[in-house]
Amino acid sequence: MEKHRLVVVSGPSGVGKGTLVKTLVKRRADVVESVSCTTRAPRDGEVHGREYYFLSKEDFLRRVQENDFLEYDEHFGNFYGTPKSFVKEMLKEKSVILEIDVVGGLNAKKAFPDCVLVMIAPPSVEELKRRLIGRGSETAVEIAGRLSRLEYELSQKDKYDYVIVNDDLEQAIQDLSQIVDGTYSQK
Hints:
By secondary structure, the protein is an alpha/beta fold. A five-stranded parallel beta sheet has the order 2-7-1-8-9, with helices on both faces. A hairpin with a 2-residue loop joins strand 5 (69-75) and strand 6. Helices cover 41% and strands 22% of the residues. The chain has a single domain, classed as 3-Layer(aba) Sandwich (Rossmann fold), CATH 3.40.50. It contains eight helices and nine strands.
């Protein structure tokens, strides 16, 4: 493997980004997931410092003023951001995966031109709807909002280095692992 890489994973809500990233991180000691900051409330089972650093809006905006984020964005009424210090420190020892939206991904590329952008795409819109409904963590209105972003998010895939269609979990994990290693060739 070449030097440690910063890999950005983006894609529509419900496409399986979290499952892919968490599985890869469990399987590989040389890869770590960046923990982002957010102003949204924790979902059931989420722990501060593990899934996200849950911040008040005031704390988040103070950190924006201090230039403490690699990238940040507001969507669905909440702020999300990647702390620069965490990424820089971890890249000394491991490859770092950021699971962030497309706006954040493109901003990360501006800040770290060597980062690798990976779009995770659903096999179909119908499958994505099924996954969103099945996870049971959002209201019908929230699901509709997430689906409304689908077209925009997928329209940005040409700005990404790689696109993985998540229709076979094991294959998608293998593809992502090879991208981290710099050995993947788009099929």
